[in-house]
Specification:
Blueprint (H helix, E strand, L loop, with lengths): L24 E4 L28 H17 L6 E4 L6 H12 L3 E5 L6 H10 L5 E5 L6 H13 L1 E6 L6 E6 L4 E6 L7 H5 L3 E4 L5 H14 L6 H9 L5 H18 L6 H10 L9 H14 L6 H8 L3 H14 L3 E4 L2 E4 L1 H6 L26
Helix pairs in contact: 1-2, 3-4, 6-7, 6-8, 7-9, 8-9
The structure holds adenosine-5'-diphosphate.
């Protein structure tokens, strides 16, 4: 049952409720693009429709079915939760859905919703069938989370105006809209919030073939000549992540323009990526530093993530969201109940010999659900 959640009149006094936060882009209709502030600079490479989305075939297929059913019934899409490491296409899919439906789209992020009043304009602006995308939804404070429950369940919000004897509650009816939540940490979502999502989809790392297709396609969009081997090499070093592939493509393009004749050959790609410190497995400086830290400071582990983060002087969130998922998948680290442990493959990767009792490399199937893919 939906809880009654209130926000107070005072909540509105400090700021203009129409004043949007820097990270949010409400009320923008994607089809004509008017008023859409790009959430990030690589928007020009973002697929514009489901047809353009490379990989994630099972997820895309299920989304197609949801869209078809919603269209046939003339109902809004059920709330959808997308989870997976950064850069795998959560925002992309969320943006493609309203385009396919021809409805409005609003975008915000958990950390920019510090109080219910920050969320209210998005809810009242939501038109029938439109999509409200909330990135990093696991970082929404509890008060905002409580406020969104009745909005998601019954399409209403309850606002208390005034205090004490003068207090009165206004029940505001909302249009039937869809919340698409994105999270890199589905485990951090509270059970009540998770349960309000009708569908949940997990995005996994991309195969070499899929990433090569993305690099090839985007090189054409950027009007850059790239050989097949170079596209494959860029894909190989992109940690199974389209955002990385796009970043490395842009960097190699800059390198090729500055140092050679603008054409990205295998040699040019290798030189450019080496200059950025990206090794043949796609590991970067921070990844190698992480492995070295566990080896030198913690004798190969087990080591707690907080301890590693303190030693490296970086937030543990960065380790858990951006460094560890790929190293786990590559079989370079293991997560045990007592902490992170370096595998023999990781010792070898940084050119060291593991001690005799170092844990063996895990079997391929032990890491995650991405068996049979390249990375
Ligand atoms: P996330 O929201 O999961 O962090 P994004 O959706 O912002 O990731 O994806 C980052 C970039 O990677 C996008 O701008 C897009 O160019 C590219 N990208 C992501 N997924 C795909 C895909 N399936 N096909 C092609 N390009 C993709």
């Amino acid at each position: 049952m939906a809880r009654e959640t209130t926000i107070r009149q005072d909540d509105f006094s400090a700021e203009d409720p129409d004043d949007e936060t820097a990270q949010s882009f409400p009320g923008s209709a994607i089809p004509d693009g008017v008023g859409v502030d790009p959430p990030e600079f690589d928007d020009e490479l973002r697929p514009a429709c489901l047809e353009d989305v490379v990989g994630q075939t099972d997820v895309v297929e299920r989304i197609r079915i949801l869209l078809e059913a919603a269209r046939k019934r003339g109902e809004p899409l059920g709330h959808l939760l997308l989870d997976g490491p950064p850069g795998l296409g959560k925002t992309t899919l969320a943006m493609v859905i309203p385009r396919e439906l021809g409805t409005d789209f609003q975008i915000t992020a958990g950390p920019s919703l510090s109080a219910p009043k920050d969320l209210l304009p998005y809810l009242t602006n939501a038109s029938a069938g439109s999509v409200l995308f909330i990135d990093e939804i696991h970082r929404m404070p509890p008060a905002v989370e409580e406020f969104i429950y009745p909005a998601m369940e019954d399409f209403r919000v309850d606002i208390t105006l005034g205090d004490g004897l003068n207090a009165r509650t206004i029940n505001m009816k909302l249009q039937q809209f869809t919340v698409i939540g994105a999270t890199t940490r589905s485990g951090m979502l509270t059970a009540p919030l998770r349960d309000r999502f009708v569908s949940r989809e997990h995005l996994s790392f991309y195969t070499l073939e899929e990433l090569t297709t993305i690099v090839r396609r985007n090189a054409a969009r950027l009007r850059t000549e790239t050989t097949e081997e170079a596209a494959r090499q860029i894909a190989l070093r992109s940690r199974g992540t389209p955002r990385k592939a796009n970043n490395w493509l842009r960097w190699t393009r800059d390198y090729a323009d500055a140092r050679v004749n603008g054409k990205i050959t295998l040699e040019v790609a290798n030189q450019a990526l080496q200059m950025k410190g990206v090794d043949h497995r796609g590991l970067e400086e921070l990844d190698r530093q992480y492995i070295e830290t566990i080896i030198t400071v913690f004798s190969g582990g087990p080591a707690g993530v907080q301890a590693i983060a303190h030693t490296m002087n970086i937030p543990s969130d960065t380790l858990e969201d951006e460094i560890e998922p790929y190293l786990l998948r590559e079989g370079l680290i293991q997560r045990t109940p007592r902490g992170r442990v370096i595998t023999a493959a990781a010792w070898g990767h940084v050119g060291r010999t593991p001690p005799q009792d170092s844990p063996p490399d895990p079997p391929d199937s032990s890491n995650d659900d991405d068996q049979g893919k390249l990375f």
